[in-house]
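Give me structure tokens for this 216-residue protein.
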Amino acid sequence: MSSPDEAVATTDTQGGDDRDVNALAEEADNTSLSMESITDGKNERGIPVVKFIEDISAFADLFTPEASAELLIGAFSDLFSKFKAYEQNLSQKRQTFQEKIPEIEKSLALVSHLKKKKEKGESVVTRYNLADTIYTKAELDCNAGIVNLWLGANVMLEYTYDEAIELLSSKLENAKKEYEETTKDLAFTRNQIITAEVNISRIYNWDIRKKRASNS
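Here you go.
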């Protein structure tokens, strides 16, 4: 899953200008506007920081030729779209961890319970599913100290209780760490989306005021 690490100058008619589309395309090809122009570095995990444009007139004058409102709106709209796609990917990843972590915790608790029963020399009575809505009792002999774990991709391996506990504990720690990082990245990404939206709105209003002043 890649972050929105690339943005290009694009044309956009949201500014209300009736100029020919070909002229706008030519402006996009010749402008010095780039990804670095509308971002302000990256966070610790490489996600771009959207630059907040305080003075739009001064910002437009930085480019050769001077960037039009349409070009600026197009650039930030392109970046906005990339962040929205990245937000969706992060949301799905976060949901996966929300489902995965309880499963690992449940498996870890079960193996720990089996180990305790083995240490006490006791067996475990449980129920297992024979068919839909049909269950039967089974007695588990814990003395063997062996458990089978699904590792994914239809792969199941045999572990001792200690090995299984070590593996599951490691997986749980990594899953919680990645969940925390994903949650932070999601919040950060949403903040960048808001900044891009604010910039687009301010550039649009700036263009309207500029046209009204020139017509008065």
